[in-house]
Structures are given as C-alpha cells and as structure tokens.
Write a structure and sequence with these properties.
The structure holds 2 protein chains of 2 kinds. Chain A starts with a helix and ends with a helix. The longest helix of chain A is centred in the C-terminal third of the chain and has 39 residues. The relative contact order of chain A is 0.13. By secondary structure, chain A is mainly alpha-helical. Helix content of chain A is 85%, strand content 0%. Chain B is an alpha/beta fold. Chain B is 38% helix and 23% strand. In chain B, the strands form 2 sheets. Chain B has a 6-stranded mixed sheet with strand order 5-6-7-3-8-9, sandwiched between helices. A 3-stranded antiparallel sheet of chain B has the order 2-1-4, covered by helices on one side. In chain B, helix 2 runs parallel beside helix 4, helix 3 packs across helix 4 and helix 6 crosses helix 7. The radius of gyration of chain B is 18 Å and the shape is globular. The chains are: A mainly alpha, B alpha/beta. Chains A and B meet through helix 7 and helix 8 of A and strand 5 and helix 2 of B.
C-alpha cells in the first residue's frame, strides 16, 4: 500500500500540474506561440516522434562517446597520479581549472580547433571535458583509499607492481569508479546538449539542435516536446547507470544476508 | 638457528619522534612469544620490523627467512571485500605465482583447518567477525610459514569467540609448529598462549621483563585453572604494573 502510494504520488502531482497548465491556457486564452497547452505539446511529440527519436539517438551516442573518452583519459591520469605524488600535484590544478571553467566559454575555441566540418568531434570533446572530473576524482580517491594493512600484506608476499594494480588497486577502487561514472554520464548528457547549442551548426542533429531549430521558428510546442524527450533520455541513462552500479556493487561485495 | 632478531633497534618517525627502542628480541623456531605492553609502546612497530616491512632507524635487524615464510595477521581481518573467502585465503599463493589448481586446493584445505569449508564462497561482508578472523588466520597459515606474526588479532572480538580462537591458535600451531610472535594487552591471553612473555615499557618501548611460562605447548583449556597459570598471570601483571608505573613517573 505504502509502496503504491510512493509510486502514485509523483505521477499524481505531474497530472495535477498538467491539468492546471491546460486549464490556465484555456481560461486565459494564452497564445500557442507563447505557451502551448500540454495537449498541443503531446500532439507535437506524436507528430515529430521519428525525428525526435533519431535526434535522441544522436545525443545519446555523443554523450556515450564523450563518457568513454572521458573515462579512458580520466582513469589513465588517475592511475598515474596514484603512482606518483608529483604527477598528481602537477595534474590536479589543471583538472580543477578545467572543471570550473564554463564549458560555454571553451566551446567556440574547441569548435575552431576541431574545424567547422567536425562539429560532432567538437561536441563529443566538450562533453568529455565536462564528464572528466567526477571520473578522475572518483578513480583517484578509490585508488588512494586502499586499506594500508592490505598493502602491507601485498608487500609481505612480494607482489609485483602489476599484481598490485590488478589484484588490489583496481578492485579496491571499483565502487568509486562506478560512482564517478554514474555522475559522469549525467554530466556527459548535459555537456553534449550545451556543446551542441554552442558549437552545433546543424551538422549534428541532436536534441539541442531540434530545440534551437524549433526556437528559431517560434514553434514552442516542438521545443517543449524536444525538451521532454531530452529529460526522458537523461533520466533513463541515469537510471540505467544506477542499476548497473547497484548490480556491480552487489557482485563486488556479495549480497549481504 | 634464530629465525629473526632485533638487536638494540630503534625506530624514529619524522614527526612523531621515537616509536620503539632501544629494543632487543630474538625469535627461535617453534616458540611462541607474547609482546605485552600498553597502547602506543611500539609493539606493532616491532612486529613490522620482524616482518621485514620496516627498517630500523638504529640497531640491527636480522631475518633468516625467505619470501613467503613470514605471515602476518592484523587486529582487523583485513580481507579483500570483493573476493570470496577462499580467494582471500589463496592470495599469498596467487601472488607467489603457484598454479591455479594447487592454489585452490591449498586454500580450501586451509579454510578447512579453521573450520570454515562451508563458507568458502562467501564474501567477507557475509561473514561474522569471528569467521572473518578465521579466514584471516587461514590466509596466514596457507603458506605454512616459519614465522607467524599476530598483531592483537583477537582484540576486536567478543569474549566467547575470542576464547575459541585462542584455543584454535594452539591447535593450529601444533600442526606445523611455526614460531609465533603475538602482540596483546591481555595478560591472561599472553600467559595461556606463550612460552615466553616479553613485557614492554610505555612508548618508546623497551624490554621491561621477560617471563618464561614453563608448561609444555600446546596447552589444554584446563591450563587456565592451574596454579602455574595463575602464577604466570600474577608475575606478568606485576611486571606490567612496574613497567608502566616507572615510566609514568619519568614522563
């Protein structure tokens, strides 16, 4: 009963808000080019479904490519940082600077460097920059959070550096790596959208481009439909990674009895 | 031949100052030595020296042991949470590059010796504190070490589990008779288990007294009710009180 209520409560709130929106639009005769009724957004969604789905796929691909790129670079740098304090000292300020610099400020630069013909590469690159930090930070924290007594055992039993890495460091860091990637994927979607807004020239046809396009034509219903799909995509990706993380963690530490 | 010896060793840490010494101790094959002293007297440091994990700042450390002949058990079970019990036990053999079938066989045999064959596939989070400690003991024994170092291995356990494990240590010791050095601040535990009790002063630890406990090893549980046991406990307690009182006066 309680569970049912937990599920129903947010749905009910959404339904109420939509009803109020629909009612207000009708009562005050709000023009469609300013704020369309939810029913009109729904119609736009149904009408433009194939286009939106294709764009969602494109955004998804760009976000996932960005995540993969960020993951490779972040893990490699974190690994090297865990091995050498000097390396960490050298890298960390740059990583932090990159993290706090608004991606919007970097976008025109990256667009120029990637070349106007490679808008896709620019978007993926920018999204990767955004997704980089939580993965790097998580991996580094994990690699440094090794039980010192376990490390002593590895020394005592004469482990090679490779054995230390594969049998101690990486498994120890797993929960932190998972957490970092979960945060990273959310940021990769945000990054892919923001980057496409700034760097997109219509060459990439992701959801941000659809929103821009609809905005230029003052088709607010189409815009809202695209925003809705984007929201669903982000929520879906987040949920997927949350499930993956939970499953992996359960395997990692064993289901507690 | 002496397995490992510390001769007038001192250990100084950059910021904390002297942690141990000057301290001397030699460990002969097959004997059980208890190091007793207050927290912070450098008992654990002495163990790490014997394990070859640290080098003394001064004095001489001598180890006549090759790789894999020393095992160490900590106060916490120190298991890898991601690995099943038998994989944890197998770690020293895996690191030594033994073939997979031998690794598994010997790990399972070691688990069996501590009475945990049924929990071979369980992850550490699924084990009770006592069981996890037994896995840790099995891991230490799987290499059949000549020197077994125990750093307050029972301190975190409840008294029943603790008593069980202490009896187990004797039983396991009698199978391969390694030299054992264990750190404790429980006088009764020290007297029951050890053939020799070394009482250390407050930090930086030096030897305050060395007391031989004559009864032959391994000892039955009933040893705890004998006059010899009680006499040992009194002697060690008195030595400990003197060691701590004297140092307090100085500090």
């Amino acid at each position: 009963m309680r569970r049912l209520l937990d599920i129903l409560a947010p749905l009910l709130l959404v339904a109420l808000l939509l009803a109020a929106w629909e009612g207000a639009c009708r009562a005050f005769a709000v023009p469609t080019y300013f704020l369309p009724k939810p029913s009109e957004v729904w119609a736009a969604l149904v009408d433009r479904w194939p286009v939106l789905l294709a764009s969602a796929w494109e955004t998804f691909l760009m976000a996932v490519s960005a995540l993969a790129a960020a993951s490779i670079v972040a893990c490699a740098l974190a690994l090297q940082s865990a091995l050498s304090r000097t390396f960490e000292r050298a890298v960390r300020p740059l990583a932090v600077t990159l993290q706090v610099t608004p991606i919007v400020a970097l976008a025109p630069l990256v667009t120029v460097w990637a070349g106007l013909d490679h808008a896709r590469a620019a978007v993926v690159g920018l999204a990767a920059v955004v997704a980089f930090f939580p993965i790097f930070s998580g991996a580094l924290t994990g690699l440094k959070a090794i039980d010192p007594d376990l490390e002593r055992l590895f020394v005592l039993y004469g482990a090679t550096p490779l054995q230390r890495l594969t049998k101690l460091s990486l498994p120890s860091a797993t929960p932190f790596l998972l957490e970092g990637h979960k945060v990273g994927v959310g940021l990769a979607v945000v990054g892919a959208v923001v980057a496409e807004f700034v760097a997109g020239s219509g060459q990439t046809k992701g959801l941000a481009w659809r929103i821009l396009e609809a905005s230029n034509r003052l088709r607010i219903a189409d815009m809202l439909a695209a925003v809705l799909v984007l929201g669903l995509l982000a929520v879906g990706l987040n949920a997927l990674f949350a499930v993956l993380e939970k499953q992996a963690l359960n395997r990692w530490r064993g289901r507690s009895r | 031949m002496t397995l490992a010896s510390l001769t007038d060793v001192t250990v100084d840490y950059p910021r904390r100052g002297r942690a141990l010494g000057p301290f001397s101790l030699s460990v002969e094959p097959g004997e059980i030595v208890a190091l007793v002293g207050a927290s912070g007297c450098g008992k654990s440091t002495a163990l790490r020296l014997l394990a070859g994990l640290e080098q003394p700042t001064g004095g001489t450390l001598n180890r006549n042991l090759s790789r894999g002949e020393t095992s160490l058990v900590f106060q916490a079970p120190t298991l890898m949470p991601w690995a099943a019990a038998w994989k944890n036990v197998a770690l020293p053999l895996e690191l030594a590059g033994r073939p997979a079938h031998e690794v598994r066989e010997r790990a399972l045999a070691a688990l069996d010796r501590v009475g945990l064959s049924a929990a071979a596939e369980a992850k550490p989070a699924q084990l009770s504190g006592g069981m996890a400690m037994r896995v840790s003991l099995a891991r230490a024994l799987v290499t059949e070490p000549r020197l077994l170092l125990l750093d307050e291995p029972f301190a975190a356990l409840d008294s029943i589990t603790r008593r069980d494990l202490i009896e187990d240590v004797h039983r396991l010791w009698s199978q391969t008779r390694p030299a054992v050095v264990f750190v404790t601040h429980d006088v009764e535990e020290a007297v029951y288990l050890a053939s020799r009790v070394v009482v250390m002063t407050l930090g930086p630890g030096r030897t305050a007294a060395e007391i031989a406990i004559e009864a032959p090893l391994p000892r039955p549980a009933a040893f705890r009710t004998t006059p010899a046991f009680r006499e040992g406990v009194e002697t060690v307690s008195a030595a400990l009180a003197t060691a701590m009182g004297r140092e307090k006066g100085v500090g």
